[in-house]
Design goal:
Helix content is 50%, strand content 8%. The protein is α/β, with parallel strands linked by helices.
Length: 466
């Protein structure tokens, strides 16, 4: 049976089709948040098979395979990629309604020209055809064939950024590969790895870190270094932090406790995170970095899986909602001193959508259009209904036309059709307004808005050409 991914996939009205085909489809991609490895881009990684390209490191797929009863041997275990692919193909018909069903078939069509639905019966055919394409495809070709203008990886402050530097010097690759400053390991003082990490950061910064002042100096040095290597953004991941706590003495105590190998109290952790995020906000303004806050994740819920497999294997979940008071405390502490950077707020808990958009509106200050952004539907929310909900909330409470649009948040070089998926949903929504008489059929105005959300807003907001 042929795929349902037609030219007008998800486009259910004539205005939606016009907006997508005439304005959205050809726009380049600025993938400003992903987890691709810059080393693999520089070395132009190739893939042995569609099994490797699809299933090595993709925890979205791993979760679904486990839920369908696939043994771990065929997920993260030592089975061959052909065996893993066959197991994934066999469960694909069971995944109708999950975004992986849409994304996988979009990827088959866009990268491999395959119109056939994936199943146990079609696995051999699709394996052979996809692998024929992959014999000549590489990491770089997959990026350029997707019309990617620039992408931002996710990098630790202690990283040397060697491959970003080499890519910048490589005249044979036109796509910008920019680092992102992700200081999570210096913020999550409650983790037992904190003391060892601080030693690593000390080495990278060339300074012994024993006090909050030392930590501030080290992070400042690393921000400066990242800026020289083209960094435009920072990124942070939290569950439900409490930034209302402000106690410098408790923050220093937390640091001393953690460096001694013990665990600080919850109050001390909150005091420490409030203090460090405050100093980081100042650094981001100084260097012109956008501050991204990913909120609401609960990590490593299964102790058994964490012990056996480690982190990032599909055992994270949606966490508690973030209090408005906590978020406002962080933003207001910076804004009152005119030190609030451009900020993007993401939530894993969709119950926070309206709350975060409303809070963001309180800190818009007229200096930058859309200075405080409500980011795209993230992780467990980047499906059809989740994207629609995010876009509807943003249009109802904020300003949709200033959105910086979609990102992949992915470790896969085959994930770029997610941008197409988002664009089709965006045009479906706005086109539907036209069809229902809720918006004018002014395609020049609406087309500019669509193109802004698809690419131009992010390029301007993040300073792609700066």
């Amino acid at each position: 049976m042929n795929t349902f991914i037609t030219e007008d996939f998800l486009l259910n009205t004539e205005p939606a089709r016009t907006l997508y085909h005439d304005f959205a489809a050809s726009m380049p991609i600025f993938d400003y948040h992903c987890h691709l490895d810059p080393k693999e881009i520089y070395e132009n990684r190739s893939f042995s098979s569609i099994g490797e390209a699809w299933l090595a490191g993709d925890h979205y797929k791993w979760r679904l395979m486990r839920a369908c009863g696939v043994p771990e041997q065929y997920i993260t275990g030592n089975a061959s990629f052909r065996e893993k692919f066959d197991r994934f193909a066999a469960i694909m018909p069971e995944l109708v309604g999950n975004p992986i069903y849409h994304w996988s078939h979009l990827e088959l069509k866009r990268f491999f020209g395959i119109d056939t639905l994936l199943s146990a019966q079609t696995a051999d055919e699709i394996w052979e055809k996809a692998n024929e394409t992959l014999r000549t495809a590489t990491a770089r070709s997959l990026i350029t064939d997707s019309n990617v203008r620039a992408l931002c990886t996710t990098d630790d402050p202690a990283d040397d950024l060697q491959y970003h530097r080499l890519l910048r010097q490589d005249e044979g690759f036109d796509v910008k590969v920019l680092p992102t400053f992700r200081p999570d390991k210096s913020l999550h003082i409650e983790n037992k790895e904190y003391a060892a990490y601080i030693e690593r950061l000390s080495g990278a910064a060339g300074i012994a870190i024993r006090t909050l002042s030392d930590l501030g100096d080290a992070l400042s040095r690393r921000c400066t270094y990242f800026a020289t290597e083209g960094c435009r953004l920072s990124d942070h991941s939290f569950g439900a932090p409490d930034f209302t706590v402000w106690d410098e003495t408790a923050a220093q105590t937390a640091m001393e406790t953690a460096l001694a190998g013990a665990k600080p109290t919850d109050y001390e952790v909150s005091a420490y995170q409030s203090y460090v995020m405050n100093l980081l906000g100042e650094l981001y303004v100084q260097h012109g970095f956008v501050m991204q806050l990913h909120l609401g994740a609960e990590r490593n819920l299964s102790t058994r899986q964490f012990v056996n497999l480690g982190p990032d294997v599909g055992c994270d979940s949606i966490g508690d909602t973030v209090s408005t008071a906590s978020l406002a405390a962080l933003l207001d502490r910076l804004a009152t001193r005119d030190l609030l950077p451009r900020t993007v707020l993401y939530t894993l808990n969709a119950a926070d959508n309206d709350k975060l958009i409303a809070a963001a509106g309180c800190f818009q200050d007229g200096t930058v259009a859309g200075k405080i952004q409500f980011g795209s539907a993230w992780w467990f929310n980047d499906h059809f209904e989740g994207m629609l909900a995010q876009l509807k909330s943003l249009s109802s409470i904020g300003v949709l036309s200033r959105s910086i649009g979609m990102l992949t948040d992915s470790r896969s070089f085959l994930s770029y059709p997610r941008h197409e998926y988002f664009r089709r949903i965006l045009c479906r929504l706005v086109g539907g307004w036209v069809a229902e008489g809720m918006a004018p059929a002014d395609y020049d105005t609406l087309g500019r808005m669509i193109q802004g959300i698809c690419f131009q807003n992010a390029a301007e907001y993040i300073g792609l050409n700066g």
